[in-house]
Amino acid sequence: MNDEEKLSRAISLTQVLRPPRQALATFGVTNIEYYLVTQPVYCDGLTAETVVRRGRVVANRPRIVTPHYLSQVEGFSADARHYLTRLMAEHGPHAPGIYYTYRNEPGGLDIMSDNLRAVIEKINREIDEKNNPLAVIIKGMDEMWDVSLMKFIFEMTGNSFGENIRELGSRGLLHVDDDGVPQGARLRIEEMFSQLYRGAIKPGELKDELERWGLFEAYQDRFLALFRR
Predict the structure, then answer these.
(1) Which side of the chain, N or C, has fewer Cβ within a 10 Å radius?
(2) Is the Cβ–Cβ distance between 37 and 116 less than 8 Å?
(3) How many domains does the chain have?
(4) Is residue 51 included in any domain, yes or no?
């Protein structure tokens, strides 16, 4: 079985056995507690063992972006930039969208001497006792378990997108001004100015954000004034 076949198999075997009861938050950070269950690679069908990987996926507050903004972000491949060029041609450079970022915080691995079904029932009881609406149980393939986690993240993002868009739109945050900047992005810049004033972020973070929006000249005096106080 080659790598592509393994990937396809890992995707096809992924099952969300207990989905979260809430979508990704529109205006805050979402902490998703995951239990990813697999059978060990060495399992011969006779050995009753189950691998449980625990951790958290932290979904940062969704950011409003445009194709033009993304084209200024470093780290994209030539193919990705070609796609952005197509987006700008089809929808315009200032069409607002949502950009999600995540980080995985592994919490440990347990090999349990019980079959998959019994382990899943035990985890379900544990979640019920904690009453965590943002807990998920995922079944995956042991040697490519992180593919299963990524598939879940992708699907949860898609399921949350419509609600996030509606909430942002209802507050006027997707409205694009004459400079091609959504209102939500303007508010983020104001928030970053406040964070820089408090010392919560580095100057380069705000400068990079302003430059991606093509706004550094417009905010330059205000930016430099922070270093003269």
Answers:
(1) C
(2) yes
(3) 1
(4) yes
Confidence check: pLDDT of 46 > 70: no
CA–CA gap between residue 80 and residue 86 (Å, rounded): 10
List CB contacts of 17: < 8 A, sequence separation 6 or more.
Answer: 37, 120, 137, 138, 139
Residue 49's domain comprises: 1-61+101-170
Whether 223 maps to a domain, the answer reads no
Number of C-beta neighbours around residue 34 at 10 A:
24
Tokens 């379900």 belong to residue: 124
Neighbouring residues of 87: CB distance < 8 A, sequence distance ≥ 6 = 67, 95
Helical H segments across 107-177, by residue range: 116-130, 145-170
Is the C-alpha dihedral spanning 80, 85, 91, 94 positive or negative?
A: positive
Instruction: Look at residue 210 and tell me if it is in a domain.
Output: no
Residue 77 lies in a domain: no
Q: Strand, coil or helix: what is 129?
A: helix
Share of the chain above pLDDT 70, in %: 97
Residue 23's pLDDT is 93
Closest CA to 120 of 3, 7, 37, 28: 37
CB 141 within 8 A of CB 9: yes
